Amino acid sequence: NLSSTEDNQQAIIDGGGIPVIVKALTSHADDADVQEKAIAALSNLCANPAAQKAIQESGAIEAVVSAMTNHCMDGSVQDKAGHMLCNLATTDVDIKEYIAAKGGLDALIIGMDMHPTNPIVQERGCRAIRN
Which helix (H) or strand (E) holds 125? Predict the structure, then answer.
């Protein structure tokens, strides 16, 4: 996964990759596989503090919440989205409040409710809510 190393994360940020990933999310909203992979890339990028504000400002949070809503029965989308929101909500209070204001908490709760036997969705959702 190219977005998992710090050097590659910076290259993706510097190269304008975040808006491109968000465009993939919005342009292919009906494709759960695209949603899952794009959210996973954003999740990795959230580990880089330089990316966090750019992710917030890019419309990524809204796109991820939309993916969670549109693919509420897809455990993989819920898993990756929970992980991404958890990673994004670790430090910045403004981002935490923004996630909540954009429906992130509701989407996490619905995802957990729709996948009660999926321990990964449950764990990621609880971690994101905890943060």
Answer: helix 119-130
